[in-house]
Amino acid sequence: MDFNSGDSQTPQISSSNQSPKNNPGNSPDDTKAITAFILGLVGIIAWCFPLIGFPVALAGIIFGILGLKSENKKVFSVIGLILSGISFIATIINAIAGAVYFSNAFA
Question: What residue ranges of the chain have pLDDT lower than 50?
């Protein structure tokens, strides 16, 4: 058996740099889109507490706008924007209702 023949196939080592930073699936815009989606989901629950719901919804809107640049995860960004917008409006309504209720309760 001749192992030095030209017919043998040796594995080729790629010289290209395949770090996660160069992988198109892990772009920063994709991360922002997924972050917007997660914050939108959290905001749907957090609107019950305006001190928590307001910053979560606002961050979700900001990340959703930044995530719209994503080519792969644009749907996550749009869904995150919608959920964050809904939770932002619900948070404001909840804060106003709480202020009115407590102002009337102690008057």
Answer: 19
